[in-house]
# Entry
Amino acid sequence: MTVEHTCRCPWLDTTKLDYVKYHDEEWGVPVLEDNKMFEYLVLESAQAGLSWYTILKRRDGYRKAFANFDVDKVAQYTSADEERLVLDASIIRHKGKIAATVNNAKCFIAIQKEFGSFIKYIWAFVDNKVQVSNLNQLSDYPATSPISD
# Structure
């Protein structure tokens, strides 16, 4: 499905069709499923210090490396799995980021158990309401906000 947009974020490089597809179909769309939220947690963690597009290009590699983002399977990964993934060229081969993904899976499951789902937990920070910002140019984008803090 292609979504027509009259307004696109100023950071979007429209020469990269896969980036445009991500922007138009996923960026800013509320996430209401734990599996999808875990996927974004894995990808965002891998992105630290890199561009989002770098990670987006490796998304299929991450999907394969991390059991289609099945949090229960990833939480069971061993140090041998982590060592195997350090050699996987389809993802960012950073030992710390890979270990963090396994640890994050364990923490994700603990939050699910305590709150019923990770989605219930995370959406509570914004009173279960979508946050809308009026950002028109790159200089309008804050690095942080009271809610994110």
Q: What stands out?
A: Residues 12-149 form a domain with the Endonuclease III; domain 1 fold (CATH 1.10.340.30). The chain has a mean pLDDT of 92. The chain has eight helices and no strands. Residues 107 and 113 are 10 Å apart (CA to CA).
